[in-house]
Amino acid sequence: MIFSRLALVFGLSLLVGCGASSDFTDLRAYMNEVRARPKGTIEPLPKFQPYESFTYRAASLRSPFQPPVKIDVVSRQKGSQEIKPDEARVKQFLEGFNIETFEMVGTLRNDSELFALVSGAGGVHRVKVGDYLGRNHGKILVIDESKVDVMEIVPDGEGGWLERPRSLSLKERS
Question: Considering only the top CATH level, what class is 93-169?
């Protein structure tokens, strides 16, 4: 009972404190002064130039970071019409990558055949003699314990084809 009377007295005192008898004349004067000030203006958005797309057309040219290659036209090797890649052959997975991305990391042997392990193209792949490697129709000719010999067929630039030997040497791990 005493608690409820105490709560009632406290609640009434709060209501009396919230009445309109308080003096807010200084606050009202400040608000009237702010309302009397001239209204500001907002600057318009800046005009942006439309985007002009750029197409890079020098991708097929020589890299500016590599020295120019001097070609001796007289001593340049001529291609042959007899040498050409088999275009009807189904391409193997490893032919979708440049041969420079591969490195030999080991060998495997079973009863009849020696396989090479090459790293590149997202993993380590097992290859054998007769498989193809690289974008230039590179056929694996020889596999031994320390290297893989590949023969690529590349265009000579005049309608013929050249055979270019390449080797992947075993990478020594330290």
Answer: mainly beta
